[in-house]
Amino acid sequence: MALPETILLLLASAAIRPEDIRESFARSSGPGGQNVNKVSTGVRLLHLPTQTSVHAQDARSQSVNRMAAYRRLVSAIAKKVQLAKNEKKAAREKERRQNRKRPHGLKRKILDGKKKRGNLKVMRRKPSDEI
């Protein structure tokens, strides 16, 4: 089935190839009377590379549901791509923080705490241990 120009433009804006999308139609449920019971107005789209699936059965018209489904698919894929970018950035930032050297003041404070702890342990020793 040939895609309308508006859908092609929508897919091109998100860099999605139309060949990567599997489209199926089914009967809707809910309000709409005899029309939704007789006509396959529900639209399900599956983007094969990302396995992202969306379903639209809001309207009584298949063409309106089809456009809504494509909009939802583009939105879902964009959200998935953005989430992956954010995760990569967070991992880079975490690694950068972990590999960063500690400031001199903080190192001094840590060493002072360790020295105090060591002195406390020395004070706990039995007098016979000191020879």
Structural write-up:
- This protein has four helices and three strands.
- Strands 1-2-3 form a three-stranded antiparallel beta sheet, with helices on one face.
- It has 131 residues and is an alpha+beta fold.
- The longest helix has 38 residues, at 62-99.
- It has one domain: Double Stranded RNA Binding Domain.
- It is elongated.
Describe the structure concisely.
This protein has 131 residues and is of the alpha+beta class. 56% of the residues lie in helices and 13% in strands.
Distance between the first and last residues' Cα: 94 Å
Number of domains: 1
Number of strands: 3
The CATH C-level class name? Alpha Beta
Task: Summarize the SSE layout with pairings.
Elements: H1 5-13, E1 21-26, H2 34-38, E2 42-47, E3 52-56, H3 62-99, H4 104-124
Antiparallel strand pairs: 1-2, 2-3
Entry keywords:
131 residues, alpha+beta, Double Stranded RNA Binding Domain, 3-stranded antiparallel β-sheet
